[in-house]
Amino acid sequence: MTILLAIVRYLGVAGCAVVALLVYYEGVPVVSKIPYINVIPLIGNLAVGEKQRYAAEQVRLATSQMVTKFERDAIAAQLAEERRRRLIADQLTTEASKRAEAALRAKSEAEAGLEARIAADTSPDGGRWSEEDQQWDGRR
Fold first, then answer.
1. Same domain as 76, residue 59
2. Which residues contact 38 (CB under 8 A, 6 or more apart)?
3. Band of pLDDT at residue 28, cut at 50, 70 and 90
4. 118-138 pLDDT, tens digit each
5. For residue 16, what are the CA distances in angstroms to 9, 19, 51, 55?
6. Please, which of 38, 77, 81, 97 could form a disulfide with 44 given CB 3.0 to 4.6 Å?
7. Which domain holds residue 74?
8. How crowded is residue 49: how many other Cβ atoms within 10 Å of its Cβ?
9. Is 138 domain-assigned?
10. Percent helix, strand and coil across the chain, each to the nearest 5
11. Cut 0.70: pTM above it
12. In angstroms, rounded to a whole number, what is the distance separating the alpha carbons of residues 67 and 75?
């Protein structure tokens, strides 16, 4: 208590007010180096200082919406995988449509061949047995 009174007498009330504002705004340099001092409610605010606390809060607010490098790399890898799968799906779709067109052509050719054979069949019994039909029919 005597030390505080000596400081007040030496600096005066105005000097003490300036020192108090300086400590509040800038913090106490030696005390601010103590680890985790800023988590103690009143002492932490005085030790760290309002300026540094405000700057740290602004950095925290600015970086809270940022994507980390790990998340960015993970999203980029996922996007590359999706693009690769889409390319494969497009290739498979193209191949399937080509096979479908070939199957439709073969079907129309087979139907045209069948229609031609039906038109060529003029026998009175309603049909003729071909060699293949006789192979499949075990009764003959």
1. no
2. 32, 44, 45, 47, 48, 53
3. confident
4. 777 766 665 666 777 767 766
5. 9, 5, 20, 26
6. 38
7. 69-119
8. 20
9. no
10. 80, 0, 20
11. no
12. 10
